[in-house]
Amino acid sequence: MTIVVPDADGLRRAVELLQGDSVVAFPTETVYGLGAHAFSPAAIAEVYRLKNRPSWNPLIVHVPHVAAARALAEDWPDAANELAAQFWPGPLTLVVRRARHLSAVGPPIETIAVRVPAHEVALSLLEAAGLPLAAPSANRSEGISPTTAEHVRRSLPEVPLILDGGPASWGIESTVVDLTGQTPRLLRPGALGLRALREVTGAIALPEEVADGAQRSSPGMNARHYAPRARVILAEDVSKVEHGDLAGPVAVLSYESVEDFSDDLVAEVLSVDPREYAADLYAALHRLDDAGVGTIIVQAPPETEEWLAVRDRLRRAAAS
Length: 320
Ligand code: TXA
Ligand code: MG
Hints:
Layout: E1 2-4, H1 8-19, E2 24-26, E3 33-37, H2 41-51, E4 60-62, H3 66-70, H4 78-87, E5 92-97, E6 111-115, H5 120-129, E7 133-134, H6 149-155, E8 161-163, E9 175-178, E10 185-188, H7 194-201, H8 208-212, E11 231-235, E12 250-255, E13 266-270, H9 274-290, E14 295-299, H10 308-318
Parallel strand pairs: 1-8, 4-6, 5-9, 11-14, 12-13, 12-14
Antiparallel strand pairs: 2-3, 3-7, 4-7, 5-6, 9-10
């Protein structure tokens, strides 16, 4: 395993691996991805093996521009056109019907998830490789998504090459929207907020499990996901949680403006702004894991729509 600078030589090595049906981790604006030629069965099998990812969970295919995305789709609805024009390159994944001549990327389903990432290194890699790249987050299944090259190295030491593009700017995964039905449907809340989406598409259907935190139904949205090794407890009021019976050391993850609780605890205090909070969340969870804490008590963020993606990830991290 090597972490390399994404200069001409680094990209050349990455392309060589990808064209040889191997895998490469690369930066995107959301989180680091584990890239593989989307239509190479050997490369895709390697992604599932390295991540220990359940075979029913499909992968997002990354492409360098809208035309390349359309080429993978059986049809390209108006909403896809409008959303792509507005938000690509960017942290939005569209699920459309897969072009019939292409094989499924993972489980045998008739849809395909596509996105154009807004990251110079990712785009250069896609152009240079000349391949659509399937790329799940570059972490072991159910673990915390990586926002740095070092996170990838520790989670997936077997990956042959990691392109280091510095810390991911959004720090949380893309928003996934299903466009195969009458109304666009949110499958995974993410970096791109609902308000921005609605301005383009009008109404968006929210699956119950996203709206009120019930159990999973869409693929990849199983309850325990994005979880650190430490036990995570979500609390409406961190200062009221009894520590006596919790596995120690006990840490607290809160955000600015929440009152100070105790001095003898390890604490991570994130921003009160949901976008900044999201950008730092996974790195904070990685740090707390590295510090060897046994329990993380997380101050539950406000129940507003702008906190939807963060609350979704925290709820999954806390699911036992
Ligand atoms: O920000 C991101 O989306 C990152 C970066 C690397 O692009 N990737 C990522 O991939 O988060 P992953 O595999 O960790 O999550 C992909 C999500 C899963 O919830 C999966 O079930 C869903 O997208 N998905 C993929 N293909 C789908 C499809 N055809 N239909 C419905 N959901 C799909
Ligand atoms: Mg993931």
